[in-house]
């Protein structure tokens, strides 16, 4: 069967006063029903733009997006409407994403009533209650009359998750959904999201800059590491995190502090330069070359490395890693 969502050679260029910004470059990825894909990388690497393209919120400058095998660009209005219902976003900021003058019941019941899923106020109340229970906000009837300012950050984010579930989505996109929460609250919200992912059998695109969170949430799924608009490494989440191959993924992992607070100390990421190059003035060849500890003059600064298979299920965009894989296998990777 066709994947739920498939991006093929998608690029996005934003035209700004400072020049063209190629925010996403030649990205291909897919997510099936019940699958999870973690998109990771530093801020500005293109992960949010990629997710917005997947959700149909931004049309790509080039490439195609297919939902259930149908090209978004060719969808008639009925199909498009269906698609919009099927994809829901959970944003980073629970403070900004909820209407401050709407009660929690108002927030949850509005889409239920608008889409004819609740025929009466009483039915909307029952369904809203069930939604809050799903996200572990109990007793739900105590929360329904409240307003966002009466809730904590974690509770608001749970309401935002509940709202994203109102229309029974097929694909959920969580964009740094826990990064603004206190660490103590974050774990609880992550646990709820993980349970929902398993229960609901929806496809999930989970965006985070935090690899420890990707490892926790992305168990059994795939991970795509992005750098300056491109995917530089792709594979099984645990395998990539436990055994990274691309020098950038290695540096990202080295920068993650130990989970044990007693072990926390500054890590040497091995990067040659701390400055991230600008998207308006991309380095030649491999965009990572000004920072890369494996940099090799000649090819790294002149030739763009494309994603290639370096072992079963693992793709890496790096001349040196591809060459090492070739050497080990005795044959060229695909
Ligand atoms: Fe580093 Fe060269 Fe590989 Fe780019 S292609 S990641 S510069 S070794």
From TrEMBL:
GO MF annotations, alphabetized: ATP binding; ATP hydrolysis activity
Keywords: ATP-binding, Nucleotide-binding, Transport
Superkingdom assignment: Bacteria
Domain ABC transporter: 5-253
Residue stretches in coiled coil: none
Keyword ATP-binding applies: yes
Gene Ontology terms describing biological process: peptide transport; transmembrane transport
Family recorded in the similarity comment: Belongs to the ABC transporter superfamily.
Name recorded for this polypeptide: Peptide/nickel transport system ATP-binding protein
